[in-house]
Design goal:
With 390 residues, the protein is α/β, with parallel strands linked by helices. It has helices spanning 11-25, 49-54, 71-91, 104-113, 134-144, 153-161, 178-182, 188-195, 218-230, 247-259, 271-281, 290-294, 326-336, 339-344, 357-367, 372-375, and strands at residues 2-8, 30-36, 59-61, 96-100, 120-123, 147-150, 169-171, 204-207, 236-239, 264-267, 284-287, 303-306, 319-322. It folds into two domains: 2-174 and 353-375, Glycogen Phosphorylase B (Rossmann fold, 3-Layer(aba) Sandwich); 186-347, 3-Layer(aba) Sandwich (Rossmann fold). Strand 8 (204-207), helix 9 (218-230) and strand 9 form a beta-alpha-beta unit.
Length: 390
Amino acid sequence: MRTIGIITAGRSDFGIYRPLAGAIQNEPGLELVLYATGGHFSKEHGYTIDEINAAGLPVTALPVPVSGDTPQAVAQAMGAITAAFSDTFAQRPPDVLVSLGDRYEMIAAALASVPFCIPLAHLHGGELSEGAMDNVFRHALTKLSHLHFASTATAARRIVHMGEEPWRVTTCGALGLDNLAALEFLDKAAIEQKLGIALDAPPVLVTYHPATLEPGQTEQHMNEFIRALARIGHPLIISYPNTDMASATVIRHLQAFAAARDDARLVYNLGTQLYFSLMRIAHAMLGNSSSGIIEAASFKLPVINVGTRQQGRLHAENVLDTPCREADILKAFETISQPAFRTWMQSIENPYGDGHTAPRILSVLRDTPINGHLLKKKFHLPEPQQEGAS
């Protein structure tokens, strides 16, 4: 029996993992263990460990919530998470450990795996988010990892250019898209009932996370962002930010705004079904969530990507990048509301794959021999690119 461990640190990655977790549970010869930590145990962010428990998945709880949104609090949480995972691995290490993306909780857990010689498999490496410290964590996770599951060919090439051997890299698409084929979408009436709001017009789905490489500017960014929200004449469904530095500033502004506006709802955790059901009926997405970059294109949904957090990330033509300034946000909103833009947008394709990613990942996790060849990494030097080659 091969044990596959998955690190989950918050609502966003748990929703992405669900197709893979289900595939592992249904595969003979594989055993699933979910290691839950970080934001799942934060009351300020909805205490989403309850969602995992409700799903009936096998959970190993490592309750290390972040107590604050300062650099010191984040650094201390990283140390505590590393220590908690080391204790857990000392009792029973998994055969393979899976991490996703770019969070500080992920790299803290991954560091604990190194002395135990646990092969690390990494999803969404090779991507860019240049306005967030997550960018650094993502690339560091790539160098710690033994298997790479890239969402696009561009990301796969970056991984190889970082010195990773090509045989370790699988271009498989974005795992989160697998949810769309299996999901039973809620209709508008069910959405209204769950949120306690009348959606007389298509809503705008709002998520804003701090740009963590611009920590001194969060207050200014939120002033601009809230002024733009106030001038948008659609119902607003707003989700909480992640557990990042300066997230308390974002939450304070969003709470005050939502409390003063009848057609706005601020929600701790929408969950996978409700979130994607909203994307299906929304007028647009607004903010800087990776879901606007990755999943929204499959819904032909316009997205206004605000600020630098997702800077450099590949996206389809449904996404308009704009500075975090009231005037620029409203100009972009006017553009995506034009009938011609919305008609043209129906022809776009999602660059993040076909929604059949879990089986591709599963086959590699199941079939790759765990031996010295896997664990002993060599630095691969790519062939020099020919002049004029694309």
